Here is the input.
Amino acid sequence: MKRGWFYQAALLAAAGLVLWFFISNTQHNLETRKIASGFGFLWREAGFEIGETGAIAFGAADSYLRALGVGLWNTFRVAAVGVVLATILGTLVGLARLSPNWLLSRIAAGYVETIRNVPLLVQLFFWYAIISENLPDPAEALQPLAGVFLSNRGIAFPTPWSTPALSGFNFVGGAVLSPEFAALLVGLVMYTAAFIGEIVRAGILSVGRGQVDAAHSMGLTRRAALRFVVLPQALRLIVPPLTSQYLNLAKNSSLAVAIGYPDLVSIANTAMNQTGQAIEGVAIIMAVFLSISLSISAFMNWYNRRVALKGLRR
Amino acid sequence: MNAAVHWVRANLFSSWPSALATLVIFWLAWKLVPPFVDWALISAVWRAPDSGACREAEGACWAFIGEKHRFMLFGTYPFEQHWRPAVATAVLVFLWIFSSFKRFWNWWLSAIWTAGLASIAVLMWGGVFGLAYVENERWGGLILTLILASFGMALAFPLSIVLALGRRSRLPVVHAACVAYIELIRGVPLISVLFMASVMLPLFMPEGMTIDKLLRAQLALILFAAAYLAEVVRGGLQAIPHHQYEASEALGLSYAQRIVHVILPQALRLSIPPLVNTFIGLFKDTSLVLIIGLFDLLSTIKISLQDPKWAGFGIEAYLFASAVYFAFCYAMSRYSRGLEQGAPERVLRGS
Here is the structure.
């Protein structure tokens, strides 16, 4: 055990030395480049416009802090909508894969196989190219459903209080998803749904055939058996890996920077390029994503305890 | 005939909802497949001297891929030297195929990998054996993707073993350091680690010392992959029955001997299927280096689209990118599934 303490002391000393080396170099480099370290830059004027500000008003005269706030809100927006839609689509994919209908299960399997084996970034570029290059101008927008318009300006759809209508070169009223938001959302949802589908499938398969047969013989309908017998048991297996898929979706939303959606990472990137405050910028990104990760895990752990077997609670 | 009718009844029309689903699928296929086939094959332009023919045609412009394929695959590597990245690609693919056979899973596999990776470095850089020197700013395309993924995996692997052993260590400082590292990296997006390497690392270095961009991105991928791999290796370590540890201890083996001769050979074999899955993830993740300005496969394809003569063929370009990535990832995922279906005992025995 004594040797153990010696190793640990050596490890600490080595880590300290490396850290000291980095810090002293960094201080020297910042001095020669005349960059003031610290978070003071957050209160300076950002000087750039943001294409999509969501609920927060933003102009070029506002501070970097406010710009990052807008970015955080945009990240949160796409991640929250994405998690909900990916869960729904993923569940449908998982159920389709287990369908007795051969065609349906083959199509779901093909979907999962294709989506999982192509990088998300390629898929995002693909959707963005479809929306921005291949959809028609607003004047000739496609209308797959009444009131929903697909054009190279994004997706316009009705809300309970207003419907979109063409006015000049763009849509007014309803809700409009920008091409960047739409491409990111579609990409994230389709990508994550493929993984969630496999998790749902494995969860349902884990419930023994005997359980379903027993439920049926007790007179439960197919739907009731699924709701009261299969799902409660399957959820126990589904929830933990589902949590990591939600985390992945939140982290993957950072790819927004590649297609120009102003999420936290892309705004922090702009701020880093303008101010040279690289350390602070990366630290902000990491701190935000670590807190998102920790909050999602905390929430899902709480939910997991609720669905876990009563006797096995830990 | 009877069997076919029976099959259709059982698999397509077994119940009303199933029959309805079948009809909806047929209707959708009727609506979607003919226009797609027409776009992708019948009306497509396969060869064209310039983009004019493509602009007039209704279908896909595959001529764009034909025109740009050398740049897409090899980036800005000197044109007359393209055989070098091509051979390097072949060597890497050979290394991966060679490593996929269970009978080669032993310690000298790492010697073969070292030799293989060294020969790739010689091929790509040159400067010896009469090969012209090519600085790595000019590397690009498929080989860059393969290099980032392969070197990333090969170098992250030893690091991940150390991290996994450290996480299971009884020494509190070692344990805490490894847990902190693994959880920190797994909690943040890869892009932030890449930013760290591309913009923060230069600040960490003494004045005048620079590490080039490719090396920095490679370092970021190694550090990132190591955290995920460490969890895979830890899974393998945990699956080793406790009596293996006890028996090797009872034999009087030292910690290093126990780990190297008893535990790791078993644990690593067990972790190979999930390891392949991590590698597929890493392979896909290399596409993110585009964001920090490296010319990997996706990046060269995207740059090809910036040629004003050929702008606007994004769908064709990204379908091509998808096809290349899919070919590699699908092969690996089929392989990993094959391994998973084999019984763990067989994997352990290496037969």
In short: The two ends of chain A are 32 Å apart (CA to CA). The longest strand of chain A covers residues 154-157.
